[in-house]
Structures are given as structure tokens and as C-alpha cells.
Design goal:
Helix content: 25-40%
Pfam family, one: Flavoprotein
Number of domains: 1
Keywords: Flavoprotein, FMN, Membrane, Mitochondrion, Prenyltransferase, Transferase, Transmembrane, Transmembrane helix
Largest sheet: 6 strands, parallel
Bound molecules: flavin mononucleotide
Radius of gyration: 16 Å
Number of strands: 6
InterPro entries: Flavin_trans-like (IPR036551), Flavoprotein (IPR003382), UbiX-like (IPR004507)
Structural class: alpha/beta
Order of helices and strands: EHEHHEEHHEHEH
Distance between the termini: 53 Å
Number of helices: 7
Strand order of the largest sheet: 3-2-1-4-5-6
Subcellular location: Mitochondrion
Family: Belongs to the UbiX/PAD1 family.
CATH topology: Rossmann fold
CATH class: Alpha Beta
Low-confidence stretches: none
Length: 193
């Protein structure tokens, strides 16, 4: 009899602003007992240091497994390694372009490519503003190829007390897409009476 394995999600962080979103995703997945496989780009490391109180080594410590972005032999680079999907959070326009073109020259674009070919969940927290025609075209086409674009756009109706509430709500909605409930934000239940 085969034992059911823990659910397993690949988390990739790239050099778009919003490193805290990736960190909070890792914390939420840890609480939910999901096995995480983390890949950090060079520019993700830079934004983690600049934007947050975390050092990349603290972020790595939040994951069950960490893979070097240049290690194309890591398990996640093969479709034969079972995963329940991948989230790129935040996702730069450069990595979006690489995924769009299928140009797999690092472990993030390769693993995203694997998700699409294996028809697994791929969520791209694509962050840029304003958006050029190239960005919009890439987003449309990766959506057609099976991924979900989740721009980290706040829901103002939650009447957030601060940035942390907005981040928690966004992270909760991202993980909804994997059928996971962080229970870390209030859901819309109609107008407050
Ligand atoms: C502080 C900072 C913020 C950035 N924010 C964004 C952003 O929001 N979106 C984006 O596409 N690129 C952004 N960039 C540029 C990317 O880091 C750059 O394009 C990089 O090559 C992305 O590589 P990666 O996808 O391998 O991490 C930012 C760079 C820095 C230093």
C-alpha cells in the first residue's frame, strides 16, 4: 500500500518588488503543513535584503527544500517529480517573459515550463506598473497556456489597518487558488449590516 505524500508546492521568488509576499506565502504554507521547494533568483535576494528585515538565509530556512537557481538537475526541474503546483511570488516581467517564451535558462523558468506541460497549477504573482503591451501580451498568452496571473492588487474593501492586512489578504487569495485556506483574512460576506 502506498502512503499518501504531503502536499508539495514549489515557491519561486524573483526580483520584482514585493518580497514580503513570497515570505508570507512560505510562512502560510508552513502553517498548513505543505512541503515547500524554494527557488530564489539573484534579484529576489537583493529585494529581500532591501525591502524586508529578513536575510535570504532566513527566507531559505522557512522552506523544507531549497534549490539553487542554476541547478537544472534539481528534482523540481522534472515532470516525473510530483508536485501540486508552483507559485512565482513576486514574478518579475523578465521571468514572465522567460515563461512565456519557454526559454528555460534557469530553474524558475524551467520548473514553470514543467508545470505547464504537466497541466499543473501555476500561479504568477506578476508585478509591474504601468503595464506595457509586451507585459500584457505575455500575461494573456501564459494565461492561455494554462497559468493564472495574480497581480498583487489590494482589495480596498477590507478596510485594511495597514500594509500587513493587505499582504495577508493577497496571500490568502493566492493560496485559495491551490485549494488552501490560510484563515488569515476576512472573506467578503456581503455589505456589513
Ligand atoms: C528594488 C527593485 C524593484 C524592482 N521591481 C520590479 C518590479 O516590480 N517588476 C519587475 O518586473 N522588475 C522589477 N525589478 C527589476 C528586476 O529585478 C529585474 O528585471 C531582474 O532582472 C529580474 O530578474 P529575475 O526575474 O531573475 O529575478 C526591480 C528591481 C529592483 C532592484
Amino acid at each position: 500500500m502506498t502512503q499518501a505524500r504531503r502536499r508539495r508546492i514549489v515557491v519561486a521568488m524573483t526580483g520584482a518588488t514585493g518580497a514580503i509576499l513570497g515570505i508570507k506565502v512560505l510562512i502560510a504554507l508552513r502553517r498548513l503543513n505543505i512541503e515547500t521547494h524554494l527557488v530564489l533568483s539573484k534579484w529576489a535576494e537583493a529585494t529581500i535584503k532591501y525591502e524586508t528585515d529578513y536575510h535570504p538565509s532566513n527566507v531559505r530556512a522557512l522552506a523544507d527544500h531549497v534549490h539553487n537557481i542554476n541547478d537544472m538537475a534539481a528534482p523540481v526541474s522534472s515532470g516525473s517529480f510530483h508536485t501540486d503546483g508552483m507559485i512565482v511570488v513576486p514574478c518579475s516581467m523578465k521571468t514572465l517573459a522567460a515563461i512565456h517564451s519557454g526559454f528555460c535558462d534557469d530553474l524558475i523558468s524551467r520548473t514553470a515550463d514543467v508545470m505547464l506541460k504537466e497541466r499543473r497549477r501555476l500561479v504568477l504573482v506578476a508585478r509591474e506598473t504601468p503595464l506595457s503591451e509586451i507585459h500584457l501580451r505575455n500575461m494573456l498568452e501564459v494565461t492561455r497556456a494554462g497559468s493564472i496571473i495574480f497581480p498583487p492588487v489590494p482589495a480596498y474593501y477590507i478596510k485594511a489597518g495597514g500594509v500587513e492586512d493587505l499582504v495577508d489578504q493577497s496571500v490568502g487569495r493566492m493560496l485559495d487558488l491551490f485549494g488552501l485556506d490560510t484563515e488569515g483574512f476576512e472573506r467578503w460576506n456581503g455589505w456589513e449590516k
